[in-house]
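seq as requested:
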Amino acid sequence: MTDETPVAHSDIAIVGAGFAGIGLAIRLQRSGQTDFTVFERAAAVGGTWRDNTYPGVACDIPAHLYSLSFATNPGWSNVFAQGHEIRDYLERTADEVRSRIRLNTPVLDMAWDETRELWMLGTPGGVHTARLLVLACGRLADPYIPRIEALEEFTGEMFHSARWDHDVDLAGKRVAVVGSGASAVQLMPRIAELADHVTLFQRSAPYVVPRVDRAYTDAERALFAKDPDEIPRLRSELFWAAEEGFAERAGDPRRTEAARARALAHLAKGIGDPQLRKLLTPDYEIGCKRVLISNEYYPAFERYGVTLVNSPIAAIDGGTAIGADGTAHEVDVIVFATGFLAAEQPYAAHVHGRSETLAEHWAGGMRAYGSTMVAGFPQLFVLDGPNAGLGHNSAIHMIESQIEFVLQALAGGGTLEVSSTAEQAWTETLDARAESTVWTTGGCDSWYVDPRSGRLTLLWPGFAHEFRAALEEAVLQLTVSNEARS
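struct tokens:
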């Protein structure tokens, strides 16, 4: 690809137009940097919130916190936003940089050209070069479908929750829901309202706590729009309340016990059948996996007669779904609520650095200095990547922290590159911090942990405010290091 004649050039190329890509683009433009292009493979912006349109899709972080601090929305209808509201918010927000977004333009290959000191991006329209490359591809972009014997021989219809087939009418159908994570908890009650019967295949029971939601009043929304201090005040209140949740995951026995008791009380209130309640009781510590919020999940089992299969699907025989426990269930539709390829990002195989691909560099689990820069990949930033997620607070806070890191690094000038020594030191520090958290000691099989190495690679093992402080220090050290090299 490096021998091809480029068709276009941008100073900065951003791959992905979800929260991270849109957010960075806006901040760049407002800072006066206008020579950038955002590449989006889909026909619309929005990332996760464009792709997930299943019944009941909603956010489990309060809306005023799950939005960009520099692009607030006074009109959120509820404390927790529905998926379509977030999608509409992102569409409106992207209008500020719409002219710089190229939709329906997948980046097929990205390679660092050592001679030209440029990134070469292969697109359907030709090679696009950039001085600096930002991967804002997201961690929940590519659906995961488990291996199931004879799945291709299923006689009914099937699809993943993130690729919802709205042409399939579920009314009167026998529907299998595969999975019991965040998406399943939201969509199962909605399917059960329509279907003749729902069978839910549960690999492991989740912890579920009440969804404390309400609509904002007209007066509240008017105040949000009128008083410029009101939304920042509310965001701060919500943020610090969420920060308290980390103590439950960091080994504080009192906090952990209280959180577990709350979840189990919610289970007892929602499920009257002792045997069913036993099957829905997690066998690991709370917080080891994502703690879910729902007021409808448990009641749906008894209200609609949902069948719980306490095992994954093992095989398909025509129109029969066979569980690993040997039970057979006749179904017409299979809905996979089985998550995403998160620990091993598919895009990594298409990013070529000085001597290896990003996938090869991450063969032992994702890692990056400041959770943002990767050794051996000059002029490259990864947003929402290694150890940049949270299990207790808003992902948008983390993304904004990384955006600030990028802007500060750019202000330092020169060729931006991090050493292997710096990356390794950062990684070892995080690995040590993760050892005492519930994510590595809680006794569960979590997508937060890389299955190849056993390392916690998806989450930041600390408070969200600590992440921002750590990145502020990391970018200062990066600037000093680059100045020394030059």
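Residues 8-142+341-485 form a domain with the FAD/NAD(P)-binding domain fold (CATH 3.50.50.60).
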